[in-house]
Design goal:
389 residues; 0% strand; 68% helix; 18 helices; mainly alpha
Length: 389
């Protein structure tokens, strides 16, 4: 397998991904651009779906765009987190991940429940604050996702306050998986996770074949197997694993415009050749997820200028956390608003809140994490702690 990587590298580039990282002190010059771009593109997709224009994405080749965004985010997370996890022990890794994810998530939960909810609910405040839904919503802070608040957005086509939180349990699963890899010392073996990726996809494809050939009754067991091997959402975990494998093999992955173009072409052909329903099945992931992962690596290693406003911090997590509630507010205020109108109307507020989240919640917390880990102190850059996933 090492010979295959070397041959591919010789065909496409004189530089590897590791060479580019070394030239930039271990920080990919395009990852800041990629993070905020993915967050804003996901916001754009949700502007389309929340305004009832899903056909624009579901019944056209553009489904491949919607398909690719969240897996690319998870592959990005796997790639960047592996860089720090390989220098941390298990306890420090868990502390770092908790401090990165939980505080901003907790504040977002409180903003939705204590500010947006009371301002826009259709029920009385007494009913709102005494509702079981109100108290349950705070479980979002620990990754137990609850989507609804009493009387809030109930007349919308999608009445979830923040449907984007569906990724939180899968992100937690990825961190637990990384914890296992740290514990069994697989991060030092560059082919271990690659084998795991291939094996997991092979099992998923085999399960797809069995499911379609021998339909089984809906039971807790089959539901669990569906979530583990068949459900579209499980591609997030596979993408995370591919991101880990890409970092482990960064010295053998070529930085190649030709290979990047080939991956984009493969994704485009899949978008043209399959519909969204077929594209969500396990079999296409054999092609789609490696292409998405390489595209992530290439863009992350390519210098892309950012506006000065977006260079002052990492606002991607804040944009991701807050974009859907603010899109819902725009729809509440203007029920017939277009997808573009919802995006444009919401973007200033979303970016503003993301700015506040970074500078007053995320960045101060990340600065304090250095107290818990010598390795974390060593990886802090001049810009402060950069978000790793």
């Amino acid at each position: 397998m090492s010979a295959i990587f070397s041959h591919i590298r010789s065909l496409h580039s004189n530089k590897s991904a590791d060479d580019i990282l070394a030239e930039h002190n271990g920080l990919g010059p395009g990852f800041d651009f990629l993070r905020i771009s993915l967050a804003l593109l996901i916001m754009g997709v949700h502007a389309v779906t929340l305004t009832g224009q899903s056909d624009l994405l579901e019944h056209s080749p553009l489904w491949i765009v919607k398909f690719s965004l969240v897996p690319m985010f998870f592959a990005l997370s796997g790639f960047l987190i592996t860089g720090s996890a390989s220098r941390l022990n298990l306890s420090n890794f868990l502390i770092n991940r908790s401090l990165r994810i939980v505080p901003a998530l907790a504040v977002d939960t409180c903003v939705c429940a204590l500010i947006i909810g009371p301002l826009f609910t259709d029920v009385s405040l007494g009913e709102y604050f005494s509702s079981h839904q109100f108290f349950s919503y705070f479980l979002n802070m620990v990754g137990w996702v609850h989507y609804y608040l009493p009387g809030l957005f109930e007349h919308h086509l999608n009445d979830k306050v923040n449907g984007s939180l569906w990724t939180v349990p899968f992100e937690i699963c990825c961190y637990l998986l990384m914890s296992l890899l740290i514990s069994i010392r697989w991060l030092s073996d560059r082919f271990s996770v690659l084998r795991l990726c291939v094996g997991y996809l092979a099992i998923s494809v085999a399960y797809q074949g069995l499911k379609q050939t021998f339909p089984a009754p809906d039971t807790p067991l089959t539901q669990g197997l569906d979530i583990l091997f068949y459900d579209e959402r499980t591609q997030t975990i596979t993408a995370f694993l591919f991101g880990i494998a890409a970092y482990q093999n960064r010295a053998r992955i070529p930085y190649s415009r030709a290979l990047f173009a080939a991956c984009l072409l493969a994704l485009a052909l899949c978008g043209l050749g399959m519909d969204a329903e077929a594209g969500r099945l396990p079999l296409p992931r054999l092609v789609l997820l490696p292409c998405v992962t390489y595209a992530m690596v290439f863009i992350g290693l390519t210098p892309v200028p950012l506006p000065a406003l977006l260079r002052s911090g990492d606002y991607s997590y804040g944009v991701y956390l807050y974009h859907q509630p603010f899109l819902q507010i725009a729809i509440q205020l203007a029920p017939r608003i277009s997808p573009l109108g919802a995006f444009v109307a919401s973007a200033p507020a979303v970016l503003g809140v993301a700015w506040l989240s970074w500078h007053f919640v995320e960045k101060p917390i990340l600065a304090r994490r250095r107290r818990f880990s010598l390795a974390a102190r060593g990886e802090a850059s001049a810009r402060g702690a950069v978000r790793e996933g």
